[in-house]
Amino acid sequence: MKVTVFGIGYVGLVQAAVLAEVGHQVLCVDVNALRVENLKQGIIPIYEPGLTPLVEKHFASGYLNFTTDAAAGVQHGDVQFIAVGTPPDEDGSADLQYVLAVATTIANHMETAKVIIDKSTVPVGTADRVKARIAEVLKARNVVLEFDVVSNPEFLKEGAAVSDCMRPDRIIVGTYDDRPHDLMRELYEPFNRNHDKLIFMDVRSAELTKYAANCMLATKISFMNEMANLAEMLGADIEAVRKGIGSDPRIGYHFIYPGCGYGGSCFPKDVQALIRSSEQLGYTPKILQAVEAVNDKQKYKLPSLVQQHFGNELAGKTIALWGLSFKPNTDDMREASSRVLMETLWQAGAKVQAYDPEAMEETQRIYGVRDDLTLVGTKEAALKGAAALVICTEWQQFRAPDFDLIKAQLQHPVIFDGRNLFEPRRLEARGFTYYAIGRGETVAKAASKQVL
Ligand SMILES: NC(=O)c1ccc[n+]([C@@H]2O[C@H](COP(=O)([O-])OP(=O)(O)OC[C@H]3O[C@@H](n4cnc5c(N)ncnc54)[C@H](O)[C@@H]3O)[C@@H](O)[C@H]2O)c1
Ligand SMILES: O=c1ccn([C@@H]2O[C@H](COP(=O)(O)OP(=O)(O)O[C@H]3O[C@H](CO)[C@@H](O)[C@H](O)[C@H]3O)[C@@H](O)[C@H]2O)c(=O)[nH]1
After folding, report:
1. Any idea which residues carry the catalytic annotation?
2. Which residues does ligand 2 sit against, CB inside 6 Å?
3. What is the homologous superfamily of the domain 299-448 according to CATH?
4. 436 near 448, Cβ under 8 Å?
5. Smaller CB count within 10 Å for the chain: N or C?
6. 67 close to ligand 1 (CB < 6 Angstrom)
7. pTM metric for this prediction
8. What is the ipTM of this complex?
């Protein structure tokens, strides 16, 4: 099938590469000319495991191509994906300007019937707006053409985006009527061989399904972070509690890891957008408000522990930081907890010496060159001369470090672990002061022997 994808970001590029892999002929359109040019030279704008070889393979095979020419894009595809950003507006609601701009572009250049598929995460009612915008432009052009608007939200996770798209758990398809069903089945048939993953519904339900999924996952995390904070005060260990509750199949082990707060381009923005949508309807979404408030506070957990530990002595100290990206296997720094940590430490006059396997270039792009930030090439180099180590992201390579080396390199054997990677007793036995999340006994002990 001929497919056009508007927007070559995380979602658009991965979706396009995966569709090309199964044999669809995919043309990607983006307004970012540099991005398009780079892709044609084999320079991939994001780090995502497995993506580069797939893009290279299908650019070479001719199944995947890139352009800034919107008219050519509209002409190419029977289906037109909208996969552009929906960033938060000033008040936190989703900014739909890019989605509606693509709708306008499609309508301006349409010469034959098209199915327009919205992949971006958009508030309920957006498909109506896309449909109305296309109808309005076609009317102004004095052209009569059939078109369908479909809501087909994306559920990929960064860091596992290619495999998530190759093997989706479900494919949500929201339509106004049955007309686009066959075409949607044909488009996704290669992903549907094992069992039927397509779930058809009306467009509004499809749009809400995306927000409900992200908000449910964010709720699980904030709930666990709240339990972690309670465990700390009660002298319990959240890691034991996590395993204890996860063993109930009704709860399950997924997405109940406490930590230094959720980040990324989706959970913070989508929870906020659903709160705004609710408020616009005069409804107060109390659970969502709490999920957001708990997370905002949780991001200050590590900086507060560091500040508490060093007290007035923090200014002028260098803190080693392992992990900058909002989660492992990505270079994405959007809403990363590491940013709150670094910014709070800088405000307190401390310096940061950081290492991340993929996100250092992005960190440099965001913060530029500054005296209080040193980015180093290895996790070991980050430790040299630092007063303590903070871990914000659970990259595999941080999970079994050489503790003797850490102790030798740090000025003080102190670790602040935002991802509960280590066994507290083992670290204590090695002479470390170990702060983690929700590990009551450990935190209490650590707090009682603050060392400078
Ligand atoms: N990142 C994720 O993990 C993820 C997962 C599921 C859903 N989503 C949703 O998918 C959407 C896209 O997210 P993303 O992370 O891929 O965004 P992104 O910012 O990485 O990429 C968006 C791309 O769209 C391009 N663009 C903007 N206006 C355009 C236009 N008029 N025509 C063509 N291209 C245009 C931009 O130049 C950019 O390359 C958002 O709604 C997001 O919430 C994201
Ligand atoms: O038990 C957990 C699981 C995750 N996180 C944090 O939650 C954030 C988001 O993680 P994850 O969901 O793995 O990454 P995303 O790439 O943001 O993916 C989410 O957001 C996407 C965009 O909407 C959706 O498509 C995905 O289904 C949804 O998982 C990260 O900061 C994680 O560290 C936790 O703190 N505890």
Report:
1. 266
2. 121, 154-158, 214, 217, 221, 255-257, 259, 262-264, 266-267, 326-327
3. NAD(P)-binding Rossmann-like Domain (3.40.50.720)
4. no
5. C
6. no
7. 0.95
8. 0.98
